[in-house]
Amino acid sequence: MDPVSPLEQALHAARARVLSDLAAGDVAAADVVSMVEASVVQRRWWVEQWPEGAAYVAGLVAQDVQDALLERYGRWPLCPVCGSGDPHALDVEPELGPDPHWVCHKAGVKVAAVGSLGSAAGGAAPS
Q1: Which of 29, 54, 68, 92 is surrounded by the fewest CB atoms within 10 Å?
Q2: Closest Cα partner for 23 from 119, 95, 127?
């Protein structure tokens, strides 16, 4: 068996992390998983062009899926930190960098690493 390339490792890890966050919010339906797969295909090309960007793939896939969900269903993931006011989505930070986290800009806090929303107040579903 051939070893898995660093590019494929980064893509598989990004897929797993985003799917974990989707599952934490009970939004990992088949069409949503297809959004993840579409992003991974797009980001595979991107990382092939810029291999140094492999460390950024998880955050980019999370942002791609977040954007696709917004277009179809609404905001995701909803902030589990702010209990009052209008529901709002978390953002990925850094936008282009390693070690991406879901962040609530309203409260000014890191909520969870991408892939760890399940440990942040039970996750969040789209609105």
Answers
A1: 29
A2: 119
Question: Could you tell me the pTM of the whole model?
Answer: 0.89
Both tokens of 58, joined, read 């998880």
Buried b (16+ CB within 10 A) or exposed e, 36-64: beebbeebeeebeeeeebbebbbbbbbbb
Helix axes 30-49, 57-72, angle to 10 degrees: 140
The span from the first CA to the last CA of the chain, in angstroms, equals 44
At position 35, the amino acid (one-letter code) is M
